[in-house]
Design brief:
Length: about 160
């Protein structure tokens, strides 16, 4: 083995062993707006505050989540746009999601709308996974967030 290759290999090991990773966290969701409601689904835009405690910036490449409203499964949602998370940040990002209805949910849209309107709000829960990357390393990590939204906070 050539000495140059050995030093290069040891250097790479040293660099990657000194990189520690801390999980990023969704800390707040605000400014909801529902757009383009169709028979198949809707688009949802919101401001998501994401905390990145790491010493390096990360890129959120995608997220795939199941959506529940008032503990009823609505369907799946995707975030397909890249979001850049600065190092040591707790920044707000405007994110657009495409949500598709589950077939069992389609018949109960009016019941859900009535409970949101007269019940004072809805409990929104999302769970799934997100893929992020830093440098050449990618990692998937779980997302689970529950929030109660007052009907007056929704923008149609």
């Amino acid at each position: 083995m050539k000495p140059k290759f050995l030093f290069f290999f040891i250097g790479i090991l040293f660099v990657f062993s000194s990189c520690t990773y801390e999980d990023i966290e969704v800390t707040n969701i605000t400014n909801y707006s529902v757009n383009n409601v169709t028979d198949d689904g809707f688009e949802l835009a919101m401001d998501i505050t994401i905390s990145n405690p790491n010493n390096y910036k990360m890129k959120m490449k995608w997220a795939k989540m199941d959506v529940y409203i008032n503990d009823r499964y609505i369907g799946k949602t995707n975030i397909d746009e890249d979001v850049i998370l600065k190092a040591h940040s707790n920044d707000e990002h405007r994110v657009k999601m495409k949500t598709s209805y589950d077939k069992a949910f389609k018949g109960s849209i009016m019941d859900l709308a009535a409970s949101a309107l007269f019940g004072g709000g809805i409990k929104l829960k999302v769970e799934g996974e997100m893929k992020g990357s830093a440098f050449l390393i990618s990692r998937k990590f779980p997302i689970e967030h529950t929030e109660t939204i007052k009907f007056s906070e929704l923008d149609f």
